[in-house]
Amino acid sequence: MAPSSLSASTTSTSCVSATSTTGLYLPQTYSFLTPETFETLVEGYISQLHIRKRNKALISQQLANDCLMVLTNPENTAIFNPKFRWWVRKHFVFTVVGELRILMDKKNGKPVCVREQLYDKVCYFHHIIGHGGRDKTFAAITKSYSKVPAELVSLFTKNCQTCLGHQPTYPAHETSSSSSSQLDQDEDPSPLLNSTQMFQKQIQQEHYQYQQQQHQQQQHPRSFLEESLLATHLTASTSSAHSAVPSMSHCAEMCSAETLSSIPTPMSCSSSSPLTSMLESHGHHPHPNHHDLDQSDAADLDLDQNHGLQQQQQHQQQQHQQHHQDLMAMEQQYRELAAVSKHELQGLHHALQPRQDDDDDDEAEGDDNNKEETISMEKCQLISAVADLVAQI
């Protein structure tokens, strides 16, 4: 809500313009922008703001006087409303220079530029920097004053006649070339759109080719012999791409050789089609429209049989590995049994060998029963030792 107005007699002694005390410039009318044009720009700037911000977007001289009245009489609650007094104390302070009271911005401590002085200050600083543009003009103003909107400075520089005259003019041929290049850019799609269109065209072409192939197959269907030979050729070609599992011992190598010998070898490539050569060897000549296999047909058949072939190959590899493990286990058992048999034979040989003792020759001949008992005990000891050895292995 806008504050109430005070009488001119009350405010004339309490507030004066900050411009009249600075002495930076003499107010004048500048040729590059008239005051009427600047006032039109100010009205346009205020009209495009929200309705709640229009009253305080620019600090007028009357509003500055009201702010000074609140600041100089802080204990007087009868003037204005509490909301306005709170807003003034939050954003402004004042300073006294002699007998003058100057309204200052509380954030940066700079004098407030009122609306009635905007034209003089903006034109002056824009002139002394040599029409340097929006950023330089705004920087020069904000070094000395506060509450000058940057959007208003931008509108001012865009309508400055001197700045408009300094803008470069392009020749006609450059303008036409730039416009033609702009049209080319508008016509040319983005790289992502190009890739998408190319992908769609490729899909349409493949779909058309597939329809043509289906139409040809309906007119000239393949015979049962062609289909069976084609499936055999694809199976052999796919199986040959997977190498066998390498062997770990001599027995495993023999097993790998026997297993791999059962896998069909790939057909040798020649200048003519393998399917055609096989059909001719059987005395069958295919239809001339599908004499050679199309790459797309072969790819479709390969994709259809790929899953089954992979499962079959995995099953063969698992069988080969299981057989290899069984052979290794049997070989280990044979070695253990051979070692046990060797130790047992050696023990029996030493047990059955006649003792060569010249001193007790007569006693040995007379004690056959004792010898047999000794041999039986030694056999039992050997058998128990062999059992312990087998358990340890």
TrEMBL record:
Residues 203-220, 262-280 have a biased composition (Low complexity). Residues 171-193, 203-222, 262-296, 352-376 are annotated as: Disordered. This is Integrase zinc-binding domain-containing protein. Residues 357-367 have a biased composition (Acidic residues).
